[in-house]
Amino acid sequence: MDLSGLSSYSPYSTQTEVPTKKELDKDAFMQLLVAQMQNQDPMEPKDNSQQIAELANFSSLEQMSQLNEGMLSLIVLQQGNAQIAQLAQGSALIGKEVTWDGPEGSGKGTVESIKVSDGLVVAEVDGQDVPLIDVIGVAGTKSNDGSAE
């Protein structure tokens, strides 16, 4: 029996490209499926039901991948909408006196502007950036005669 063809086989061979990712993607799955079909024993071909099951797995993998991409897009959109809503709500604070208490300190001052800084919506209060989440009180604006409006 001639076994010379087997000597060149190594399970650790680097002849085929393997993705360096921790998880196999749909392209790697399809490459594995094609390689499996090319290297099957012609005297004992794979059962059709097994091939159909593998194709169904591939289809499921593709749908899960598309669902994952859609969910990530939705999350990014949701975060953008939340920032816009915070900017709109925060703009009502411009010119008003606010009180804040947060991990970086507390204080009181007049809101000069609202902006996004490092992904957070912050109020610029007397030259200091205060995250809107730290604002605990809002007073009305003061008129020239000292009375609250």
Task: Give the SSE string.
Answer: HHHEEEEE
In one word, what is the shape? rod-shaped
Mean pLDDT: 77
Q: How many alpha or pi helices?
A: 3
Strand content range: 15-25%
How many E strands? Answer: 5
Strand order of the largest sheet: 4-3-2-1-5
Number of domains: 2
Q: Which structural category do the helix and sheet elements fall into?
A: alpha+beta
Q: Specify the helix fraction band.
A: 40-55%
Radius of gyration, whole Å: 31 Å
The largest sheet is: 5 strands, antiparallel
* Gap between N and C termini: 100 Å
Residue stretches low in confidence (pLDDT < 50, at least 5 long) are 1-16
Would you kindly provide a written description of the structure presented here, covering whatever features stand out?
41% of the residues lie in helices and 23% in strands. The protein folds into 2 domains: 21-39 and 46-91; 93-139, SH3 type barrels (Roll). Mean pLDDT is 77; it is low at 1-16. It is an alpha+beta fold and 149 residues long. It has helices at 4-7, 26-38, 48-91, and strands at residues 97-102, 105-117, 120-125, 128-131, 135-139. Strands 4-3-2-1-5 form a 5-stranded antiparallel beta sheet. It has 3 helices and 5 strands; from the N terminus they run αααβββββ.
Structure at a glance:
With 149 residues, this protein is an alpha+beta fold.
Give the helix/strand layout:
Blueprint: H1 4-7, H2 26-38, H3 48-91, E1 97-102, E2 105-117, E3 120-125, E4 128-131, E5 135-139
Antiparallel strand pairs: 1-2, 1-5, 2-3, 3-4
Helix pairs in contact: 2-3
